[in-house]
Write a structure and sequence with these properties.
The chain has 506 residues and is α/β, with parallel strands linked by helices. The chain contains 19 helices and eight strands. The protein has helices spanning 19-43, 48-64, 80-90, 92-111, 123-145, 154-169, 172-191, 203-217, 230-233, 248-273, 283-300, 309-317, 324-339, 349-363, 366-375, 377-392, 395-414, 442-450, 470-484, and strands spanning 2-4, 10-12, 73-74, 306-307, 417-422, 429-437, 458-468, 492-494. The chain has a four-stranded mixed β-sheet with strand order 5-6-7-8, with helices on one face. The chain has a two-stranded antiparallel ribbon with strand order 1-2. Strands 3-4 form a two-stranded antiparallel ribbon. The two termini are 47 Å apart.
Length: 506
């Protein structure tokens, strides 16, 4: 395509005007994604290459689709615990079925324009979910750092940590593993404080690279990643695995995958939109893009994908302007997996565990909890209960408990009621109600009214009520009949003001 200048000379207009910025950003995102893809796969109990497969699909397939132009998708630390539990309970062949069904459900929800409704989920529930995942992730990966085997339940993981760490100190091999993991975390924490020129290498890559170098030079007795090769690691689900869809437990796991992956992706999209001034996210299309990616990941038997805020933020901060950067990052992952798969065998497992302990720590919003406790204690309670429930019970039940508590909290706050009694010593007693009178506040209303003197006339003013439900109206009528039955002047009731608004359409 060409255009003419004022002098008539043609000027070629590039189809990719931002290719230079997108190319450099894609390299940064690739270097951030590589250790995270491998680390999430190892922590999930699946071959390391499957994490790369999900990263490749997230970059090339989801990256090409419309939705959020600068958001980057791939395997996420937030789903590690759920994937590990699913593989342990149903087996690796069933993982493909779960991820495939998750993708199909996401496609359906996007087609039905349900993406925007995920923004209605209480942010406290989402943050509590991530905090619970973070706590379980930290506890489980500390065992890997100490060259130990983690218990199955969240509570057992936390309870057994002190003994495991104490045993590691007295064992030479376990101590070497623990120190290497701790060193990885230290590099990640301190990396942000280094000069800008040093930070051109992403922190996760630098931490894993230094740990790998230390393990090789010092000949440390630590476990390394097992390599199977890209094609050898693919686990397409056999037809027999689809028979497991009749299992109620498997269906519950699919629902959990769908809700958590969708919520995490769309909340990440909202966060990424705040980082740049480009096109805003189209939520329904983004949900369909995630669904398409998960459908392909399921067919390949790979890990589930979500949008990942760490990679997305790195993409924006590196100067990406279009979706070309995220597609190219997927190409670089594919080239690495195809040409250099043997390099994975040198990566120490405790270094990857350290990466995920650091990632899990960032999922626990300590500052947010402190701020909520000062200003909105109900929201803080929902967050903490959701997190504790996930640790104590399981992911799916913990999220359901959090959602139920959020609904109860909202209902309680919506039923705010003020009851004022005015008794001047002579004449009728005045009872003024304002706000929302619902069954949740019924005990308070009846206790106050039944405490009024039986030998005095009463006027109940309901004009300040915005809402009076059937249960409250029936209870007030019953109380008024009882109060008037003892010979006292009948209770007078001022009804709520009803405002009728006529709506005309042209």
């Amino acid at each position: 395509m060409s255009a003419a200048t004022d002098h008539g000379a043609p000027v070629r207009i590039s189809r990719f005007p931002h290719l230079k910025q997108d190319f450099s950003a894609s390299l940064v995102v690739f270097l951030v994604a590589l250790p995270l893809c491998v680390g999430v796969a190892v922590a999930s109990g699946v071959p390391a290459e499957l994490g790369l497969v999900t990263g490749i699909v997230g970059g090339i397939v989801t990256g090409l689709l419309r939705g959020s132009s600068l958001q980057v998708s791939g395997p996420a630390a937030g789903l590690t615990v759920l994937v590990y539990e699913a593989v342990r309970e149903f087996g690796l062949p069933a993982l493909g079925v779960i991820v495939l069904a998750t993708g199909v459900l996401q496609l359906a929800m996007g087609a039905l324009r349900l993406g925007r409704w995920f923004r209605a989920i209480s942010i406290s529930v989402v943050e509590g979910m991530l905090a619970g995942i973070g706590l379980v992730l930290i506890a489980g990966q500390l065992y890997s750092m100490a060259d130990g085997k983690a218990p199955e339940s969240g509570l057992e993981k936390i309870a057994g940590l002190p003994g495991t760490l104490a045993d590691a100190v007295g064992d030479a091999d376990a101590s070497a593993s623990l120190l290497l993991g701790a060193g990885t975390i230290a590099v990640l924490v301190l990396w942000k404080r280094l000069p800008a020129k040093a930070r051109t290498v992403p922190g996760p890559l630098a931490a894993v690279g230094l740990a790998t170098l230390a393990a090789l030079l010092l000949d440390l007795p630590v476990a390394t990643v097992e390599v199977q090769g890209l094609l050898g690691s693919l686990q397409p689900p056999p037809l027999s695995a689809f028979g497991d869809l009749a299992d109620v437990g498997l269906l519950g796991t699919i629902v959990a995958f769908t809700l958590i992956a969708s919520a995490e992706s769309l909340f990440s999209a909202a966060a990424v939109d705040r980082l740049h001034d480009g096109p805003r996210t189209e939520y329904d299309k983004e949900l369909m893009a995630q669904g398409a990616g998960n459908t392909i990941c399921g067919i390949l038997g790979a890990l589930p994908m979500t949008a990942v805020i760490v990679r997305s933020a790195a993409n924006v901060q590196a100067g990406a302007r279009t979706k070309t950067s995220r597609v190219l990052h997927g190409v670089w992952l594919l080239l690495f997996a195809a040409l250099l798969p043997g390099a994975l065998a040198y990566i120490p497992v405790p270094a990857l565990a350290g990466i995920l302990v650091h990632a899990g720590g960032k999922l626990v919003p300590v500052r947010t909890i402190a701020g909520l406790w000062r200003e909105h204690r109900g929201e803080a309670l929902v967050l903490v209960v959701t997190a504790v429930s996930i640790v104590a019970v399981s992911m799916f039940e913990g999220v359901l408990i959090g959602l139920a508590l959020a609904v109860v909290k909202t209902a309680w706050e919506a039923s705010h009621l003020k009851l004022e009694i005015v008794d001047k010593g002579a004449g009728p007693v005045q009872a003024h109600l304002s706000g929302n009178a619902t069954f949740l506040r019924l005990p308070k209303i009846l206790d106050s009214l039944e405490a009024l003197p039986q030998d005095r006339p009463v006027v109940v003013d309901l004009s300040g009520l915005h809402h009076l439900d059937h249960a409250c109206r029936t209870a007030l009528e019953t109380w008024a009949e009882r109060h008037s039955a003892v010979g006292t002047e009948p209770v007078k009731v001022t009804e709520p003001v009803k405002v009728t608004q006529r709506v005309t359409t042209g």
